[in-house]
Write a structure and sequence with these properties.
Two copies of one chain form a homodimer. By secondary structure, chain A is of the alpha/beta class. Helix content of chain A is 36%, strand content 23%. In chain A, helix 3 links the parallel strand 6 and strand 7. The longest helix of chain A has 18 residues. Chain A is globular and about 60 Å long. At the A-B interface, helix 2, helix 9, helix 11 and helix 13 of A face helix 2, helix 9, helix 11 and helix 13 of B.
Chain lengths: 425, 425
């Protein structure tokens, strides 16, 4: 794998800890066999034969991980934004997702999505498809081609859908899932299937039981939604009167972390017991600040989750969130944390740039293993950032330049992208 | 003025009312002598000699008005964002603004700013300079060249600054202001001076008295800051123990609207009496949603201001806000209004796209007279928007396309810009 032995030279920025940057100017960042060998001020003798790409004054940061995104919703991001969650699902999302029954439409839509994801700061992502097996497999084929590392879920939903977007029954949903897994479980280098019950209102108890069996058989990771919106939470309580909190509606089927790595998106309104159970089961929280704002859901207590040592990463949640950019997700997370501090609880300090950068890199990246940092032995995911399109009259520190690119930068500032040592562009 | 007689043909979108769009597909938008003559489905006989620019399937919207922006702060937007207002002013803003004593630096920084403003969706803006007369005049010269319509203020600040950024005394500040007005009051076609006491903590009573005299002499418009941050409000109360609320600290010098049109930025924490006085005096509120978020100030009660019939427009408030784009200001305003509804007061409904679009166009634009709409007799300010860089697999309505461009678009979607009938690019 000689092509995975190389060196990037530039200003290397990553997390020193979850609250501090490590910034090494004019450093050598070594990739050896797709893994990071370290950041060096002087190049060690043993790497002197590796080709060096000189990135000049550019910044080099780890690739970002998007823990929660709906691929079929990319087509209508930034529209219908004046609605709240349940109304938005029924009037926009479900009818739009129904279109993915048509494979020609899916090809067109998913090509646009995967091309955009490839150009974005995202190196790794956990992605919802739709309930349709062919369209979801097509999405996985297209993602495989990008070189990004992704987990993709065929969505399960056998109740409370709309006429064109609901599976016939639990058995059909489970059978389709089995077919999909058979097709995809060992097919790809870069894409893995992830179990994806849409959310409790969409999945009957019978279906949840079947999915739990499927999960344990293949030791599948899982992703779903949790405690996003007050109306949704009240509905789950009605649907599952035997539960004390929403998370129990997954947990009673063994679908709440533990042995199988699990992501729950949102957790805006999680009660204490739910938080404790998430911690106990190692559940990852995908914090989706912009989506929780757009859909008027609220602001998740991320400072508390950090203090209590839960696993957290960030998600764009397209199309609840309108922006595919994880840079924007970092900024959104800082911004809503400030409003939460001011308006809800001034004992919970706002998040800093250092903290949210960590969440977007190693925080969420750890769901994929050793990723999201430039420590020795980590997967070599890197972005080269060029800020010459953002002119400034004064001197700026490297940290200022990084902050500025995160606040202001679009995809055009990314001039190089690597995932597991493979050059994406 | 033949060059100001022309027609744009395309999908014309503007406000029908403050809560509804007017959308006319494939329409003729006529500019006659720099003013809008109307939107026509069929071109009237009398305009048949005017040259037609066919914008195809593009959208045409009114130019946007930024009611609050600090030109010298553009250079460091998107940095130092982890601080609250007063700390941010002292550690970042004041030291950075001090650099504008150097005219070479100002030339470099203001050239970058004016070039960016020209390319942005902003047609008109109310702009803070610094306390320095030469740099502020240079800024005005550069803005004149852009063709945008702006009001620009030399800042007054004779107390509570930092060593390099504070005027010697009230008299010096007033004299500098007189010099600046003499130089600029009748110099430009596109730029007008606007009186700009920074905010109460920066201006002694003696200075306020002198500025009031200057204002009345020239019937000058004015811009300042009001009730942005709780720490600031407490400080004003200390500085002005004879006032019942912050607005009185301006009003007692006759510097709070009335005869002279006045903009107060922020009004996040205005008490009832202040709101009533703003209404009585016709004071314009510049709502700066992103800045109020970044500086942890809070969320202004815009729904209440609308219900009570106050004048409101939007501001980017660079560099409290990081983005120069008024598209982003529209989105930010919607987003924070949703969080306010959820977290502070659920009797105050979130703002809609239609409402915030109105605020960004005619709402703020009316500070400049008849602008921000395509009604007959309005100044012809228009943007041509091309969304082909935002591919989509499905049909979209014109409204959806507009919403999408506002949520997702950057300056590159603007392919044409006109102000008062003059082509900017």
């Amino acid at each position: 794998m000689t092509e995975k032995n190389f060196i990037l030279k530039g200003n290397v920025c990553c997390s020193e800890t979850s609250t501090a940057f490590s910034i090494t100017e004019n450093a050598y960042l070594v990739c050896e066999g797709g893994l990071c060998a370290g950041i060096f001020r002087e190049l060690p003798e043993k790497y002197r034969s590796f080709p060096i790409k000189d990135c000049g004054d550019n910044l080099i940061i780890p690739g970002l991980t998007d823990l929660h995104i709906h691929a079929p919703q990319y087509s209508y991001r930034g529209t219908g934004m004046d609605l709240e969650l349940l109304e938005w699902l029924n009037t926009i999302t479900f009818p739009q997702e129904a279109a993915y029954a048509n494979l020609n439409y899916a090809q067109k839509a998913y090509s646009i999505f995967t091309e955009a994801l490839k150009k974005s700061p995202t190196a790794r992502a956990c992605i919802f498809g739709t309930m349709h097996v062919p369209a979801t497999e097509l999405l996985m084929d297209l993602l495989e081609e990008t070189g990004l590392k992704t987990m993709v879920g065929k969505v399960n939903m056998d109740r409370n859908g709309v006429p064109n977007l609901q599976e016939k029954d639990a058995k059909t949903s489970a059978q389709d899932t089995a077919t999909w897994l058979e097709d995809t479980l060992h097919k790809y280098q870069n894409v893995r299937p992830i179990l994806t019950p849409r959310f409790t209102p969409s999945c009957s108890d019978e279906l949840m039981e079947m999915l739990s069996v499927i999960q344990k058989k293949h030791h599948l990771p899982m992703q779903s939604h949790l405690s996003e919106n007050l109306g949704e939470i009240a509905w789950v309580k009605e649907l599952c009167p035997d539960t004390d909190f929403y998370g129990e509606a997954y947990d009673k089927f063994g679908l709440f972390g533990g042995e199988c790595p699990t992501i729950m998106a949102h957790c805006v309104h999680s009660p204490d017991a739910e938080i404790h159970l998430m911690k106990e089961r190692g559940v990852y929280i995908a914090h989706c600040a912009q989506s929780n704002t757009n859909l008027s859901s609220g602001i998740a207590p991320v400072r508390r989750y950090l203090n209590e040592g839960l696993h957290i990463g960030l998600g764009t949640d397209i199309a609840g969130g309108a922006s595919l950019s994880m840079f924007r997700a970092i900024v959104d997370s800082i911004q809503v944390s400030k409003l939460r501090w001011r308006l809800v609880d001034d004992t919970q300090k706002p998040l800093t740039l250092e903290e949210t950068f960590y969440l977007a890199t190693e925080g969420g990246g750890s769901f994929f293993g050793k990723t999201g940092n430039f420590k020795e032995g980590y997967e070599f995911d890197a972005l080269i950032l060029d800020d010459t399109s953002l002119p400034h009259p004064q001197e700026l520190t490297i940290r200022d330049r990084l902050e500025r690119m995160i606040y202001l930068g679009d995809d055009h500032i990314i001039t190089g992208k690597y995932v597991s040592g493979k050059k994406i562009f």
